[in-house]
Write a structure and sequence with these properties.
242 residues; mainly alpha; 75% helix; globular
Length: 242
């Protein structure tokens, strides 16, 4: 059922984006072959602006659906197309722009393109800071993604700082029993497991499991499986260490 829903959404967004895109879209990576060096276009035509906004929303949503479905290359293309429309509309320095390049940073992290991921995250961070939006749920998402990036490149001190700050923001904005908070607890558990700080690892995996079991016992099956594996690994290490 979930796959059918995803396929339907992809079809709808592709149709919308193809209908509403009023100019050819340049294909390529955000940091790489693709270059955004053109000037934004002033267009006072209300109908054209509405078409551009609909095209942007369709491309963005298509990219997010594809990302959630782990179709990373197509997600990257759609999100880059959405960014191009934002820049053409003169909205590069916007929260929408920051949110999309945050997702692109996560895609590049998954693809082990760490240079591109770092550029995306720090560009998004600068935009949030310029708008004084460092207390928002979106900024918490950025910090969590930056934490995962830092963890993957073995910058453990930076990962800890980003995860801890993300946890506080997500507890405040998403709620202490939210999926986002559970994910961040699991990330911290993974970090402390790697550092062999097992008491901290045990605490955070326990918090993640508690939220998962009490708040969404019948959902997020893949995430619950990840939690179970992480917890078993921590138990085994604690047992070995005595």
């Amino acid at each position: 059922m979930a796959d059918e829903y995803t396929n339907d959404m992809v079809k709808i967004y592709k149709e919308l984006s193809s209908i509403t895109s009023h100019r050819p879209i340049i294909r390529g990576r955000y940091y790489g072959e693709r270059s955004f060096n053109f000037s934004p276009r002033e267009d006072n035509n209300l109908e054209t602006r509405k078409i551009t906004e609909l095209a942007f929303a369709s491309l963005r949503n298509l990219g997010l659906v594809l990302y959630d479905d782990k179709v990373l290359h197509e997600a990257e293309i759609s999100l880059c197309d959405a960014l191009e429309l934002l820049q053409l509309s003169g909205k590069k320095e916007s929260i929408d722009y920051a949110m999309i390049i945050t997702t692109l940073g996560r895609i590049y992290t998954h693809k082990n393109q760490f240079k591109e991921a770092s550029k995306a995250f720090y560009e998004a961070k600068k935009i949030y800071e310029n708008f004084s939006k460092q207390d928002t749920a979106e900024y918490g998402t950025l910090l969590a993604n930056m934490g995962e990036y830092s963890l993957m490149i073995c910058d453990y001190k930076e990962a800890e700082s980003n995860f801890e700050r993300a946890l506080l923001l997500r507890q405040k904005n998403n709620g202490p029993g939210s999926y986002e908070v559970a994910i961040t607890h699991n990330n911290l558990a993974t970090l402390y497991r790697i550092l062999e700080q097992l008491d901290k690892a045990y605490f955070h995996i326990g918090e993640a499991m508690r939220i998962a079991l009490s708040k969404f016992p019948d959902g997020h099956a893949e995430f619950r499986e990840i939690l179970n594996k992480n917890m078993m690994t921590i138990f085994k290490i604690r047992k070995t260490k005595g």
